Amino acid sequence: MIRFAKTFGILAASAAATATLAFGGTAALAQNDGFNFPQDINFLAQADPNVRRATARVNGNIITGTDVDHRVALIVAANNAPIPPEEMARLRLQVLRNLIDETLQVQEAAAQNMTVTAEEVDQSYTRFALERFERGPEQMDAYLESIGSSPRTLKRQIQGELAWDRLLRRNIAPFVNVSTEEVSEIYDRLMAARGQYEYRIGEIYLSATPATRDAVLANAQQIVTQLRQGGSFVAYARQFSEASTAVVGGDLGWIRLEQLQNPTLEAAARELQPGQLAGPIEIPGGFSLLLLIDRRQIGMADPRDAVLSLTQVSIDFPPGLPESEAALRAQQFANMVSTINGCGDAEAKAASIGAEVISNDDIAVRALPDALQNVMLELNVGEATPPFGDLQQGVRVLILCGRDDPAQMAGPSFDEILTTTENERINRRAQRYLRDLRRDAVIEYN
């Protein structure tokens, strides 16, 4: 399956930090970065803050305002929540940074005779449309145009991802070595921790220097605000995270907290419940946002992996039914449910009041809504949940007809630990690689 994302620079963050100095007058820079800045910053010329064009030329390749518009439209569509006007300008700057990095990655791949062909991009585009949207390429084209984007912008993102993945596979991955002894040591620690928790965590990492710290922190806080308002963590990780996990939406997979290799991150993650977000968390080199996707015990079966046989009994209320009558029918339904003796008795009892019965023998507990999971785990075979629903939509119950408990888990394998450790080291080298590409680039802004 095609993976989308990029690692992104901090050019816009640097510009934002400079703007802060310009408007703030005097700023004390308590840092040891070798630049020897004066205490009073006086610019010889001031750019007009009302004139800003989101275009650039990167080593001769042009990024247009339309490129930025189309990429922004992709993010807005994936965000599932409106983006405030004051955030849009910041988002456009971040998107421009993303496009610059993509361009550098594509150029580097071409310079090393690893050009991504149009045919490869088209194949990945088709596969992505079918797997993620269940659409053919023509339907995907129409959808992108309907949201104000274009097939070209998504294909450009695919090209950048394929190029970067190709570069990392040849220039970095072969030179990352993890010894058998290292993996064995981690494995032994994990086995000693059997029964303790491991975590599936999503991350968004934004790099920062002392000079850009405040601007990057502000960007991270804006991302947190959007996520708390319903934005997609996966979408933001793909677009803005500078970690290698950006290609999989920031998903670190199942890890022990010590594998984060940072006490601050460990402490923050330990306090989270599934679905909760932490950050921005300042760490050496930048800021991290963490999302706890799930949690389980090492080497122990997770009850939520049990597969259930369920029967649903429901009754709907026709539109316009008076609330008093709906309440009466809901009470009759509850009384009927209390007399059901197991799934074999449900059909006949439901028919007595015109309720509908649906059965399913293959539902995992974790596939149910969160509010139902704990309830189902407490039921014995033949018991029903309390009625749920409302007087407008109707009410229903679930009856537990059977449960197949999950097998005991052995914990992460040797190969899984090896892969996780290798990916962490590849990630660190990839960040340095991209920084070098930015440093050597000739970038002209219009």
From TrEMBL:
InterPro entries: OMP_Chaperone_SurA, PPIase_dom_sf, PPIase_PpiC, Trigger_fact/SurA_dom_sf. One of its GO terms (molecular function) is peptidyl-prolyl cis-trans isomerase activity. It holds the Pfam family Rotamase. It comes from the Bacteria. Residues 196-294 form the PpiC domain. Keywords: Isomerase, Rotamase, Signal. The keyword Isomerase applies. Residues 1-30 form the signal peptide. PANTHER family: CHAPERONE SURA (PTHR47637). This is Parvulin-like PPIase. It comes from Alteraurantiacibacter lauratis.
